[in-house]
Design brief:
The complex is a heterodimer of chains A (114) and B (113).
Chain A lengths: L3 E4 L2 E4 L5 E7 L5 E7 L5 E8 L5 E2 L10 E5 L2 E6 L8 E8 L6 E3 L3 E5 L1
Parallel strand pairs in A: 2-11
Antiparallel strand pairs in A: 1-3, 3-8, 4-5, 4-9, 5-6, 7-8, 9-10, 9-11
Chain B lengths: L3 E2 L4 E5 L4 E3 L2 E2 L6 E7 L5 E7 L5 E3 L5 E5 L4 E6 L8 E8 L6 E3 L3 E6 L1
Parallel strand pairs in B: 2-12
Antiparallel strand pairs in B: 1-4, 3-9, 5-6, 5-10, 7-8, 8-9, 10-11, 10-12
């Protein structure tokens, strides 16, 4: 299994500002995943972060809005840039236990943009 | 790409009654199948998973699910609901050839005393 520490757990931010979310895993993993969970909805994959290369973004998500860093095999950050109220969501990082294995999730960051 | 359908965004059951949460997936090749639970203000926790082998899988907290290839389904059940089961439940699949997870839209379970 993997233990994922994600912070902050919640934040209230002013529109137009940026927030960086940190994700720390207790073991080395090749890929880390960032999801968004809008109120009352399911999880949507934002991007996949590999160490040593640029993140791969899903349709509808762009690097300028959601820049991701992956400096090593246990850590990643997601920045939500130039925030608007529409960015109010829960953001979750995730890793896989291995090929075909389950996904492990951080506790999530509940972001409210006012 | 896969799609995952969870019938019923809200399900209410009485305490002690059977819990049945439905999940269907779209794939000609059986994927790996998962059920996750999300309690308020928390991340997702794995309930159970199916990869290969026995099609009836048992998970934590008395939940189980049965993989039915012919019906492309992976419904979650629990014989007797408990108040602590009230949460959001997500069905998810991952392709056997990749790492991406696909989540259903979730089912909010309410347990009535």
């Amino acid at each position: 299994s993997a233990v994922i520490s994600q912070k902050p757990s919640r934040d209230i931010c002013q529109r137009g500002t940026s927030l960086t979310i940190q994700c720390q895993v207790d073991s080395q993993v090749t890929m880390m995943f960032w999801y968004r969970q809008q109120p009352g909805q399911s999880l949507t994959l934002i991007a996949t972060a590999n160490q040593g290369s640029e993140a791969t973004y899903e349709s509808g998500f762009v690097i300028d809005k959601f820049p991701i860093s992956r400096p090593n095999l246990t850590f990643s950050t997601l920045t939500v840039s130039n925030m608007s109220p529409e960015d109010s969501s829960i953001y979750l990082c995730s890793v896989l236990s291995g090929f075909g294995g389950e996904a492990f999730f951080g506790q999530g960051t509940r972001l409210t943009v006012v | 790409a896969q799609s995952v359908t969870q019938l019923g965004s809200h399900v209410s059951v009485s305490e002690g009654a059977l819990v049945l949460l439905r999940c269907n997936y779209s794939s000609s090749v059986p994927p790996y199948l998962f059920w996750y639970v999300q309690y308020p203000n928390q991340g997702l926790q794995l309930l159970l998973k199916y990869t290969t082998g026995a099609t009836l899988v048992k998970g934590i907290n008395g939940f189980e699910a049965e993989f039915k290839k012919s019906e492309t389904s992976f419904h979650l059940t629990k014989p007797s609901a408990h108040m602590s089961d009230a949460a959001e439940y997500f069905c998810a699949v991952s392709e056997t050839t990749g790492n991406q997870f696909y989540f259903g839209t979730g089912t909010s379970l309410t347990v009535i005393p």
